[in-house]
TrEMBL record:
GO terms for biological process: deadenylation-dependent decapping of nuclear-transcribed mRNA; mRNA processing; RNA splicing. Residues 1-33 have a biased composition (Basic and acidic residues). Homodimer. Associates with components of the exosome multienzyme ribonuclease complex, such as EXOSC3 and EXOSC4. Interacts with NDOR1. Substrate binds at residues 168, 178, 198, 200, 261-272. It is an enzyme of class 3 (hydrolase). Keywords: Acetylation, Cytoplasm, Hydrolase, mRNA processing, mRNA splicing, Nucleus, Phosphoprotein. One of its GO terms (molecular function) is 5'-(N(7)-methyl 5'-triphosphoguanosine)-[mRNA] diphosphatase activity. The keyword Cytoplasm applies. This is m7GpppX diphosphatase. Its main location: cytoplasm. Pfam families: DcpS (PF05652), DcpS_C (PF11969). Belongs to the HIT family. Residues 1-42 are annotated as: Disordered.
Length: 330
């Protein structure tokens, strides 16, 4: 069911950043819409039993569930898909409405859309580890101050001690998975990258466009590893990424937000491309660093990100937050 109402007052809540690390969807054509030979419908969730609701957001229309599927621990993400402009005529023609309230010029209805216009995007992580469960659980956040020395003595050892796999990243780079989803591929081992849609984008409309450029170099964990020697790589991602998006989605560079996260959700250099105006998770000033600023900072100071103090948010259950507390840095 979808709610359709003329409202005199609209309230909003701060959207919580909820990144997704999961089995990835398939299928897109030049317009970002599903196309080609689609897999048949199936119900892999018939054996899923819910243990708990990790978090949810009425504003984002998304819910994160923890449970078991065929005996394995699993995380399931349910997200209502947005209404598409090109489906409006069919939506108005074939839907049924039931009146909830009428007052003067204002009316509120429950709208029952045709099933194919009322889909729920579903992401499954299975088997899921305790790290996945913690990642999606709602938690209080704290802003951490990290000096260059803090990175080397606290953050880097913590990162090196983690076992969260990057195999899914290498599968993309080696064309072992998701090859049909790639928007642009530069095979150069030094400055090359793969550009493809992020899971946060359902590829149905460009208003919430979200793509990720994954660098081919495997020894760059994050912003902290960058120096002036990486400027050719960053320039290449910046220029060719924008050009590829213009060609595929007819979206000019002036309508794009291009940035890196610190801390990133996974420690292999990647760059986010989102449509300006789209309130993408993690695009706030406490975590996002514009790629244009990163390039300029490295041109000014070759070791800029290896020495400067950076601030970033960590959730209460994040092990790295515990390390900062133990070191007396929080």
């Amino acid at each position: 069911m979808a709610n359709v109402a003329a409202k005199r007052e609209i309230s909003s809540a701060e959207g919580e950043e909820l990144s997704r690390e999961a089995k990835r969807a398939k299928g897109d054509d030049k317009n970002g819409e599903e196309g080609g030979n689609e897999p048949e419908w199936e119900n892999i969730l018939s054996t899923f039993t819910t243990t708990s609701v990790l978090s949810d957001s009425a504003r984002e229309k998304i819910m994160f569930l923890h449970g078991k599927m065929a005996g394995d621990e699993a995380v399931v993400v349910l997200e209502k898909t947005p209404v598409r402009e090109d489906s409006l005529a069919e939506l108005f023609r074939d839907s049924k409405l039931r009146l909830d309230m009428r007052n003067d010029i204002y009316s509120s209805y429950r709208l029952q859309a045709p099933p194919h216009l009322n889909e729920i995007k579903t992401t499954v992580v299975c088997p899921a580890t305790e790290k996945h469960v913690k990642k999606y659980r709602r938690q209080e956040s704290f802003l951490v101050e990290e000096t260059g020395d803090d990175y080397r003595s606290i953050t880097l050892p913590y990162i090196q001690g983690q076992s969260l796999s990057l195999q899914w990243v290498y599968n993309i780079l080696e064309k072992k998975a998701e090859a049909e989803r790639v928007v642009y591929d530069d095979p150069d081992p030094e400055v090359g990258f793969v550009l493809l849609p992020d899971l946060k984008w359902d590829q149905k409309q460009v208003d919430d466009l979200y793509l990720i450029a994954i660098a081919r170099q495997k020894d760059i964990k994050s912003l902290r590893d960058l120096s002036s020697e990486h400027l050719p790589l960053l320039h290449n991602i910046f220029q060719k990424g924008k050009a590829a998006i213009l060609e595929r989605y007819n979206l000019s560079a002036s309508k794009l937000r291009v940035y890196l996260h610190y801390q990133p959700s996974y420690y292999h250099l990647h760059v986010h491309f989102t449509k300006l105006g789209h309130d993408a998770p993690g695009c706030g000033v406490e975590r996002a660093h514009l790629l244009s600023d990163v390039i300029q900072n490295l041109q000014t100071d070759p070791q800029y990100y290896r020495t400067r103090t950076l601030w970033f948010p960590l959730r209460a259950d994040d092990g790295l937050l515990g390390r900062f507390r133990e070191a007396g840095r929080l």
